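Observation: inputs received (chain + pyridoxal-5'-phosphate).
Thought: call the complex predictor directly.
Action: predict_structure
Action Input:
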Amino acid sequence: MSRKTSGKRGGPGPATIGIHAGSPEPVSGAPVVLPVVQSATFFGGTGEPASQLLYSRHGNNPNQALVGEKMAALEGAEEGLLLSSGMSAIAMTILAALPEGGHVVSSRHLYGATRALLEDELPKRGITTTLIEPESKADWEGALTPRTGVLFLEVPTNPTLRVFDPRVPAEIARDREILLAVDATFASPVNIRFADLGVGAVIHSATKYLGGHSDLVAGVVSGSSGLIERVRGMMKLYGPAPDPHTAWLLDRGLKTLQMRVAQHNQNAMELANWFLGRQGVAEVHYPGLPGHPDYDIASEIMAGFGGMLSIELEGGGPAADAFAAGLELALLAPSLGGVETLVSQPRHTSHIHFSETMRVDLGIPDGFVRISVGLEDVEDLMADFGRALAGS
Ligand SMILES: *Cc1c(COP(=O)(O)O)cnc(C)c1O
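Observation:
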């Protein structure tokens, strides 16, 4: 048994949930922290229902189950399921929700691997996708077919930090009884609780903010019990289960999620304002800036504007390369959401397989630099970025 901590209105707040939800009962002599249960299998198989059999590929090892329960409480969803990566969470959710020959309508603003999954991989399995610009209800409706079973959206978008309103596709999904899945990685459950906005499947790359220390790869999906059972069914067959130690590390990360994200929000907001109008900086993309195209929506649905920010340098690719080379504190690496500030150029990382024309069309011209603002003292980051800008 575990301590139930619900994220429902009037219940405990996200900091409390992050620390306590799913933790073991406080029985005298029991450990305060659930140890890593490094066991593939568990005693059983003596006539109990199949759903009660524990096996680590089924995602019900105690460490995996604890994280699932904590995530469900953080999201305000019925159930959560931990998988081995963000990509496996996305892939298993889409496969679980679609019939043979199913169709997806997705925002075209996607993480590179998600786009490749939808455009290149799933069509080989008979699943097709129509990519849209998700500005209005008409944009979504115009792409629906009788076989559409999933609407897919990423908020905020990587790396352009657009904030599209999930309530628009949520209404369509509800009316048609299909699934709206949202990749909520950039927001984290601290900044947006998507289930409250009508989203059926809330997906995270737990590799990022949830883990928070750039030391694990995992993914999570939260939603109704029915959906999670179907995704678990896919996980049992395809096998992307996380190992117990990863689940344990992730739980440790979740205990400080609220505090970390609050500080990421603050550091990024200060840095975004600092970059505005600096010499050599053509654009600053941050949803907390009043000049951002989605500032109004972001202000409405986000508790904080997040730790991700992007800039465009006037000198294009060469300026961005020089800027990156001039950094001493901020580190050059893909990925995001860790305690250390990470800088990357999408044209060298997530969008490396896109042509320059496609990148420009997506709002990622050469000279575009993505910054995952970490938890260092923000003055130190400003000094580092100031030096790098001066040399770019
Ligand atoms: C990193 C990321 C993913 C993929 O997650 P992995 O854990 O690396 O599989 C998916 N979506 C977004 C927005 C990401 O940032």
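Thought: report the result.
Final Answer: The longest helix spans residues 257-275. The pocket of pyridoxal-5'-phosphate is lined by residues 85-87, 111, 113-114, 154, 158, 183, 185-186, 205, 207-208, 217, 219 (CB under 6 Å).
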